[in-house]
C-alpha cells in the first residue's frame, strides 16, 4: 500500500475528535466501574487512543481486526456506536455481543 495520507486541518481535526471520543468513553467507563454499575473486569484503553485511531484510519473497511482486551477504543474507532458498546459493558442484549462479552470480549 503506497497511499499517502494527507494531514490537512480537517483530517487532523477528525483524528483528534476520534481520540477525544474514545477518552471520554473510557472516563465514563471508569466512573461506572468504580461505582460498581459495570461488573466484571475492566481493562481501560485510556492513553492508547492514538494507536487505534491511527491504525483504523489506515485500514480498509474489509480488513479484519483481532483484539484481546483493552479493545473499547478499537471498537469505537472502527465505528461501533457508544450506545451499543456501553450496552455490552452493562451485559445487555442490545450490546455488540448480546451482553455476553462484557469489557473483555466485545
Written description of the protein model:
By secondary structure, the chain is an all-alpha fold. It has one domain. 48% of the residues lie in helices and 0% in strands. It is built from four helices and no strands. The chain is globular, with a radius of gyration of 14 Å. The model has no long low-confidence stretch (mean pLDDT 87).
Could you give the distance between the termini?
Answer: 29 Å
Poorly predicted parts: none
Q: What structural category arises from helix and sheet content?
A: mainly alpha
* Rg calculated over all Cα atoms: 14 Å
Strand content: under 5%
Shape category:
globular
Query: Secondary-structure element order, as H and E?
Result: HHHH
Helix content: 40-55%
Main beta sheet strand tally, sense and closure: none
Please report the number of helical segments: 4
Q: Could you tell me the number of beta strands? A: 0
Question: How is this fold's topology laid out?
Answer:
Layout: H1 9-34, H2 49-58, H3 72-78, H4 82-89
Helix pairs in contact: 1-2, 1-3, 2-3
Descriptive keywords:
106 residues, globular
Compose a concise summary of this entry.
The chain has helices spanning 9-34, 49-58, 72-78, 82-89.
Amino acid at each position: 500500500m503506497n497511499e499517502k495520507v494527507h494531514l490537512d486541518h480537517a483530517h487532523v481535526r477528525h483524528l483528534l475528535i476520534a481520540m477525544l471520543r474514545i477518552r471520554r468513553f473510557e472516563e465514563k467507563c471508569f466512573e461506572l466501574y468504580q461505582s460498581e454499575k459495570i461488573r466484571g473486569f475492566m481493562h481501560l484503553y485510556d492513553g492508547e487512543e492514538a494507536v487505534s485511531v491511527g491504525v483504523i484510519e489506515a485500514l480498509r473497511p474489509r480488513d479484519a481486526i483481532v483484539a484481546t482486551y483493552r479493545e473499547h477504543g478499537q471498537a469505537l474507532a472502527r465505528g461501533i456506536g457508544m450506545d451499543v458498546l456501553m450496552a455490552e459493558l452493562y451485559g445487555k442484549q442490545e450490546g455488540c455481543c448480546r451482553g455476553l462479552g462484557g469489557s473483555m470480549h466485545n
